[in-house]
TrEMBL record:
This protein's name: Heavy metal-associated domain containing protein
GO molecular function, one term: metal ion binding
InterPro entries attached to this UniProt entry: HMA_dom (IPR006121), HMA_dom_sf (IPR036163)
Organism (species): Musa troglodytarum
SUPFAM superfamilies: HMA, heavy metal-associated domain (SSF55008)
């Protein structure tokens, strides 16, 4: 039987932060084993983490340093679309 190959996974999180929190976030995640890459989209408060780390340990580490973190969901995707203004509305004028 062949040993199973580990494939890096991407964990998407919603992290409440301001500009100053990104440095703290990156420092915290640098201490978690198995993380290969961290991408931060501060405008929509989204953090994408790629690697072999356990997703629950990642969230726990962020909460330990005082950052509110939760797993990214479809609901967050909809809210971020409205927040960035990338949704276009039809405007109608009457009269």
């Amino acid at each position: 039987m062949l040993p199973s190959l580990l494939v890096p996974q991407t964990i998407e999180l919603k992290v409440d932060m301001v500009a100053l929190h990104e440095k703290r976030l990156r420092k915290c995640l640098s201490k978690v084993k198995g993380i290969e890459r961290v991408e931060v989209e501060a405008s929509i408060e989204k953090v994408a983490i790629t690697g072999y780390a356990n997703r629950n340990k990642v969230v726990k580490a962020l909460r330990r340093v005082g950052l509110r973190a939760e797993f990214w969901s479809a609901h967050n995707e909809i809210l971020s679309t409205y927040a960035t203004g990338s949704v276009m509305f039809n405007t109608y004028s009457f009269f």
